[in-house]
Amino acid sequence: xxxxxxxxxxxxxxxxxxxxxxxxxxxxxxxxxxxxxxxxxxxxxxxxxxxxxxxxxxxxxxxxxxxxxxxxxxxxxxxxxxxxxxxxxxxxxxxxxxxxxxxxxxxxxxxxxxxxxxxxxxxxxxxxxxxxxxxxxxxxxxxxxxxxxxxxxxxxxxxxxxxxxxxxxxxxxxxxxxxxxxxxxxxxxxxxxxxxxxxxxxxxxxxxxxxxxxxxxxxxxxxxxxxxxxxxxxxxxxxxxxxxxxxxxxxxxxxxxxxxxxxxxxxxxxxxxxxxxxxxxxxxxxxxxxxxxxxxxxxxxxxxxxxxxxxxxxxxxxxxxxxxxxxxxxxxxxxxxxxxxxxxxxxxxxxxxxxxxxxxxxxxxxxxxxxxxxxxxxxxxxxxxxxxxxxxxxxxxxxxxxxxxxxxxxxxxxxxxxxxxxxxxxxxxxxxxxxxxxxxxxxxxxxxxxxxxxxxxxxxxxxxxxxxxxxxxxxxxxxxxxxxxxxxxxxxxxxxxxxxxx
Amino acid sequence: xxxxxxxxxxxxxxxxxxxxxxxxxxxxxxxxxxxxxxxxxxxxxxxxxxxxxxxxxxxxxxxxxxxxxxxxxxxxxxxxxxxxxxxxxxxxxxxxxxxxxxxxxxxxxxxxxxxxxxxxxxxxxxxxxxxxxxxxxxxxxxxxxxxxxxxxxxxxxxxxxxxxxxxxxxxxxxxxxxxxxxxxxxxxxxxxxxxxxxxxxxxxxxxxxxxxxxxxxxxxxxxxxxxxxxxxxxxxxxxxxxxxxxxxxxxxxxxx
Lengths: 502, 256
Ligand SMILES: Nc1ncnc2c1ncn2[C@@H]1O[C@H](COP(=O)(O)OP(=O)(O)OP(=O)(O)O)[C@@H](O)[C@H]1O
Ligand SMILES: [Mg+2]
Known about the structure:
Helix content of chain B: 25-40%
Helix content of chain A: 10-25%
Largest interface: A-B, 24 and 32 residues
Order of helices and strands of chain B: EEEHEEHEEHHEHEHEHEEHH
Low-confidence stretches of chain A: 1-34, 40-45, 111-116, 136-146, 152-158
Structural class of chain B: alpha/beta
Largest sheet of chain A: 11 strands, mixed
Low-confidence stretches of chain B: none
Strand content of chain B: 25-35%
Distance between the termini of chain A: 48 Å
Number of strands of chain A: 23
Strand content of chain A: 25-35%
Strand order of the largest sheet of chain B: 6-9-10-3-11-12
Mean pLDDT of chain A: 78
Radius of gyration of chain A: 22 Å
Bound molecules: adenosine-5'-triphosphate, magnesium ion
Mean pLDDT of chain B: 92
CATH topology of chain B: Rossmann fold
CATH class of chain B: Alpha Beta
Oligomer: heterodimer
């Protein structure tokens, strides 16, 4: 027996259909003039491959990294898959066709060519960039207990704290180095969760990925610090295709955070990443993202196309994978961090805040695939749309025949600001085991004029009132973030929505 | 403190206030009574600056300044407080956080240093205690899941923390049990002073036994149909509104 229930506030939909909410409340209308704080460009000589994509491009990237033959073969196979695949059209987003031959698939800051061993060897310009981004690379990082693996365009330029982590047996390094130093581990797990043939963008990534992070937490180890990676796209006309692989062995725990920014450019830039997580028996992986890629200007020019495949496999019994994401950036987001719950008693969680403003489009959500017995999953999704933006939640809950006693709870709330934006919910449900309990609640509301007035009447100005109401709306997700990032996420939200209610 | 002259206001093209004159001096308490739909909440909303109400004629000065010219948050910072007839829920925002933001917005406006978290908690606990509210409420989301009476008490609690010059209480007594009515009235009375004034909107003479007004006004058809001292409230209780309403409709018909 399963229950399937909606909590309805302003509008509701049946599974498989779509609704759009756009009731008019005049005083709340207003277009955003959003300032992108991270839009500076770093002036560094780039070692860049000319635009274009063919087998030679793939070979060039692989050779540049001195990769073993097996990896080159793996890439080439992925490339051939990709050639036979079509870009997906099912997401609820619209953009002109991407010319994959006009993109450059490799850009490395020149000074990183011969891999710096310490911070002193890193180009000061780069360090200054990170400082502007507020990344704690030096002392501050030690105090904050954050280890940073920074990916600048395509090459990892600095990894801190590796020694301290090594003491605990934790491996945290650029994946390109892991290929050299831990080839067996990488070979064993790479593509095991997201195979190259999985989808168009995953195939593309598998063929041309340039770098990313590799994390390995051995049996029984609780990672002594938060691990984090910051991604930044700097070069013009480049795509970023990083690949992250996290493996948590039996009984280990790790919390990982990724942050993303990109400079303002008039052209669109492509970001097609792949993240794979593997959790063995009793392991826990918490993966948090604060995504703030450049969203384009208020007329919809420029911005990042963020087409990302993130998936975690709970292979072990009682293992747990938890995705938390705060998505405020990108012109277009297409992203469904998923959990495959294979181990009996394993748990998947997805907590998401997606904010769209101006012309941004987001089609994001999750997939929870219940395979093992007594597996459970929780989905909390908060979508906020402002301006002329479109925000879709798309979620699949699939209960396989063997998943006796599976449970899912989903809650998808949308908040609309103004009457020119859209919120959509597409929940898909496939239940093939009668003992499953599946519960779905969905609400759509307008940010309340009466709430804003109430706060105004207590002396709080409208901008702060909106930010307070929105943060309250997202609270269940923010409290899943590590403390310092929760604060950052709240600030980001305010910046993203600046001027959206006037 | 507050001077309302010939105030006309409408909502959605519907004329509701039709020439209100009211002088509220510092140190006084004015009760405003009147039948349902007579425009009491509308008057409160116009004074607080709610969107959607258009002022068609008249003027309002508050502490010597043009009130109608100020944004709602400025009115609040200048010392005008409205205890809502229907307090609004704000999910996910704790009472504590909300009220500290309010206090500090007002303090910043007045050039005072912001209250640190610790100082604010002390202040809040001190103010909440006499009102008989469980301090646990400070951790809950603003008005969310509060009972009707708890919401009303909480409005008075907020007022006692913000210490406004002018408190407008819109039916703060409805929904309160007898004990709560006393406690809340004591809360208001505790704030009374030579520099502060109150406009108390109510349907019940009962409240005025606890908060003793200096003046009572009866609003009917968007005007003040009658003003008097506290005995007017007693007369109203005896005769109902009809005898006043009849007079005011007659006046309106005569075109004044
Ligand atoms: N948006 C609106 N459109 C039309 N009429 C409105 C609107 N808002 C309020 N009104 C009307 O204005 C009149 C005055 O309402 P108001 O809320 O001020 O009355 P009140 O004196 O506070 O009544 P009560 O004692 O019931 O609280 C009522 O007739 C109400 O229906
Ligand atoms: Mg009223």
